[in-house]
Amino acid sequence: MKLQRLDCDFSICKVNTLSGVDFSREFCFLSKTDEELSLVCLTQYAPANALERSDGWKGFRVQGVLDFSLVGVLSQISALLAAHHISLFAVSTYNTDYIFTKAAQFESALQALAAAGHEIH
Fold first, then answer.
1. What CATH number does the domain containing 61 carry?
2. What's the number of domains the chain is made of?
3. Which of 12, 56, 67, 96 is the most buried (most CB within 10 A)?
4. Is 38 helix (H, G, I), strand (E, B) or coil?
5. Would you state the pLDDT for residue 121?
């Protein structure tokens, strides 16, 4: 599997309004449920009115468009990282998956994935 590192710093936020969210930025992942409104964005553009915020995340994406019939993409990555005691935060889009780890564990995560045969770009 080919993985592309994203050389950006990310924040994961809990918000109650979208008023401070800049959707024109390169990365802006929004999730809304009956219980919460969550945002993953570039740290420098995290909204000041966030209810809660976790900074210090780095990420990579699975390269290419993933067919919906594919099974186990996230499972394979999460199991490998779990075996190395690395927690993750995943976001799936229509095209692909994005995986985030805390910055302190990011290089170790990429090394573990590369050692397992994944191509890192």
1. 3.30.2130.10
2. 1
3. 12
4. strand
5. 94
